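Suppose you are handed only these lines of text.
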Amino acid sequence: MDEPQTSLPTTKVARAARFAKTGFNVGTNYIKHYAKKAVGAESTTESLHAANAAELYGTLSEMKGSVLKVAQMLAMEKNMLPTAYADQFAKAQYSTPPLSGPLVTKAFRDAFGKSPYQLFDEFEPEARQAASIGQVHFARKDGKELAVKVQYPGVADSIKSDIRLVKPIALRVMGLNEAQVRPYLEEVETRLLEETDYKLELRRGQEIAAKCQELHNLEFATYYPEFSTARILTMDWLPGQHLKEFLATNPSQEIRNQIGQALWDFYQFQFNELHQLHADPHPGNFLMRADHGGTLGVLDFGCVKDVPMDVYQLFKDLLAPETFTDENRLAALLTQGGVLRATDAPAMRALYMRTMRVSLELVGRPFRQATFDFGDPAYMAALYALGDDLMADPELRKQREPRGSEHFIYLNRTYVGLFALLTELGASIQTGIM
Ligand SMILES: Nc1ncnc2c1ncn2[C@@H]1O[C@H](COP(=O)(O)OP(=O)(O)O)[C@@H](O)[C@H]1O
Ligand SMILES: [Mg+2]
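From them, the structure of the protein bound to magnesium ion can be written out as follows.
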């Protein structure tokens, strides 16, 4: 880990200053790019993206908080962004400087009127894990091992102004128009704001865990409301390893399949039965165990997506096998989902139909088979390649306005994340009707 931070650039002015700097540098990179182009020199779009991404990343990781969470989210949407951005943003998931002991103690005093050493039998002053808007400490109480997530001070208060600051830069860098992307940004902002409310996370974590009790090979932490607030969350310390460490132990194919199946069933059950999803399936949020016969610990209910009934039905219909072979059915569903419009010119309509048919065929593939082998990396590679193709498509690039329901943002993110995890795990899954 890096040196602990003893202060955060939380004042509006300090944050604005950092952003102004980034905005300026991003602008400068573009000017250099176009200047070079004007004189015919070589300056690839790729190198421009890399320079901007590095610049943005440096600023974002110093700012922490909500902005870093945006970066994390973008990192997950690898298929939606030029590769250079994704690579830079991916760093955000692992390298954030931790808060010092005194700041942690202050957070406890503010919340409980007591220090963590008074509250618990034992409390480690150094965080075991740094995360996006918090860090996780190890503690003991009455013989129990606990995980205590402490939110970075000031995050919740500054999230709105962060978004206001980052928005124009993001819009400019990605060449989007504010009014047209408003519903999508609002959807993301809502999730980000919810994520700062650990009371909500506690409630959702308890509820989803209770409803998933019948599922096999899953483990959830018990939460302790008496040691939790909106900014501090206390739960059992779950044993297990993150995906990379787990894979380094060379787990058997059988164990990998079993854990992969648990992961798949967890998501299918949430989607089909609960209409509510743990919408952050990145490797940091799962702990795997071979020693326990192959189980999956699920963490972090900070980002949960409630799926409205009509959106659920639409998503199911879109992925149904008959949809992508039936032009009329596909067109009707796409119109319902806001992708196609009555006013579209025939060429535009054909473009969206073609794009969506290819996408649905690929994304829906695991659902259309009784079993699916994510161990074949070709599938995920094809998904990323499709994302890159769509990003590079000259006709689609002209469409400056995104289309489709904003509810699909987190649904897509969840399934792309889930598929990526299963691919890395190399699991073969029974994907058919559960
Ligand atoms: N109950 C727990 N048991 C063990 N480790 C945990 C637990 N909760 C969190 N962690 C560790 O802390 C990291 C960050 O926690 P998480 O809840 O995912 O935070 P964030 O919401 O900021 O992403 C996790 O990736 C995991 O390594
Ligand atoms: Mg997490």
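What can we learn from it? Residues 55 and 103 are 28 Å apart (CA to CA). The first helix runs from residue 12 to 38.
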